[in-house]
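Follow-up to my post from last week.
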Amino acid sequence: MKRGYAGIFLAVAVAVAGLLLWQGLKNATVYFKTADEAVAQRASLGTRRFRLEGVVEPGSVHERKQFVDFVVSENDAEVRVHHVGDPPELFKPNIPVVLEGHFDGQVFQSDRILVKHTSEYRKEHKGRVKDYKQ
Amino acid sequence: MTAIVGHSAALLGLLASTIGGVSLVVGLARGRTNLVRAAWSYVWFVVAAAVIGMGAMEFALVRHDFSLQYVAEHGSRHTPLLYTIAGAWSALEGSILLWVLVLSIYLAALTLRHRAQREDPVFGWALVVMLAVAAFFFFLLLGAADPFHTIKGVIPTDGPGPNPLLQNHPLMAIHPPFLYGGFVGFTVPFAFALASLITGRVDEGWVLAMRRWTLVAFGLLTVGIVLGAWWSYEVLGWGGFWAWDPVENTSFLPWLTATAYLHSVLVQERRGMLRVWNLSLVTATFALTILGTFLTRSGVLESVHSFSESGIGPLLLGFFGVIVVVVCGLLAWRGDALRSPGMIDSPVSREAAFLMNNLLFAAFAFVVLLGTVFPLIAEAINNSRLTIGRPYFDRMTGPIGLALLFLMAVAPALPWRKASKGVMRDRLLVPAWIGGITLLALVVFGVRSLAALVAFSLGAFAGAAALRQLVLAARAARRSGQPWWRGVVGRANGGMIVHLGVVVVAVGFAASMSFVQRDEVRLKPGESAKVGRHHVTYLGVDHVKYATRSAERASVRVDGGRVYRPALSKYPFATQAIGTPSVRSGVIDDVYLTLVTTPSDPKGTAVIGIIVTPLVNWLWTGGLIMGLGTAMALVPGRRRVPTAPASQPGPVPEPEPVAV
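User reply:
Got it. Predicted complex:
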């Protein structure tokens, strides 16, 4: 009888641990989408937080005191971005960037800009950034 | 020329380790001792091959021999000598060479130290395993990760040098050798674990022989990880030191299983229990070093589908698979012999505490491993790219870490077999009071972060418990006519010093996580900002040219004292500017300065990042204390009486408080 209880206890413990892990993973998952994927899945993404990757369109950058607006594109799909905060020193048109934030209607609200290592990035992801202009 | 020498060295290494291994197997299987004795001398060819290989690499790097592809890609004429030398382990091929060199050092040390046991089958089979591992890595050097590959066509006159991030802090030169010293060191206990299974001598013999070897690897890995965290703090510019990045996780995973092993092995030594578990932990530690190398070096983290593009990915994964299959097979084969003679008598005993410790460490390792490989699983299953963020790791590992801290306070005070209430009170009352008073004092002084309160008070509890053990041990040493320092060396007491180091790390970790203050301020020359208790004045910016880079350098005065110079550097071969933070370190807190945006004209506004992190220095100090404690644990301590392996009825003998 004692063994039976131990078995039940173990099963419950494993189930609880599994549930905790699953919840933890689910809450901390940040999806990674290129601009074209993001446009295609805009409906299902909703206001969920994810990482958006694309190339900063030249001529689209408008910098204000507290924020910066620009457009990123990938495979001819464009996403308008509103980034709150100072962009990093390395931020400039024509470089691939990764942004973290969420969609708010048509505009992607970003609060984090990661600038990719451009030269290595191009070498490793020939398919991902196609018409890269220097 | 260098390429020929290098290739010959790798070939020599492969041949020597293969021939040595094969003749050992034949000698051991047929019982021909002369063959076994002779096989040990192949070790010296392996050592020679590794030393010549690394020597050729360094020669090519220092002489700027750009006919080698590795030098052309990772060397440059302007890189300072230190980073040119360290360039030998700044990329995949060179790091495999370093792996081989470290492994050959362990081989040489093993051969010299255990000269008397060369005919012992356990030692023989262990050498077979180590030579097989060496052969695998020499094989990598000959093909998939060839550091001596020559450039076809025009030889460049200069190279880009190492990645800019790898050449602006001296820690980068010493962190990898320490890390590899730890990683590769676990090959030795793994080899002995396999040898014990192969020979069927699964008793405590190999465990005793491996005590110091495991400690050496553990100490080097500990210091290596801490140096890596320190480097990333000093160089990367985000003010943190640990990001649960896959590269960090893969160095941490073997540390977790090795730490679990160092504790559970004591149970096996004392009581003969947990044999299968210990074999599994040793295997897991070694296998995780290989898995880690696979994850970080094959490009699999970039994308599941890209790993097969590198030649080394499938080989490392295959090697990992072979290790797991062989060990599982051997465990099944020797299953009967692995039955333990003893049982755990009481849940309030040293062995039960060690069991709990092991469950927690295993859970810790599982959580970290799952978070690291989950993106790969997700990509393989439904092709979605995702990352697992810090919240997962912080939330999952935090409680486990605190539970371990609690166990660290209580477990060393528990006697083997069964604890009585009186013993517990004697040993834990004072440390528990110290923990409680710390908690009260922190609440009174206005600390409200729950995680920090728990971590600090458990830290005080565990620290007091460890100190009490050390004081008692030193006194006991004095009483028995030995000098007091005899009480702080040896495995048990050195272990207590490691525990003190862990407490210092835990306090630093909790404080720096809970009370960090970050700000980004826009300042004109002469203007000041205040973050926490610190005043920061921006003085101006200047442009500096170095041999390898040019930099925009801001001058920032902290608290009216010294001027610090965070910079943004541009390297000619890198398109990206590299931020160089400047840190004012102190015992209480660090002021971490970064130059975020340079002004367009000298009188303009600069953006300065200011991060004030309390007690972050404690992390490095604690890590070094852990390394020191491990070194002191290597010094032979006082002899003690072993406990009988099987449990007996009757009164529980009262062991000395210092005995572990």
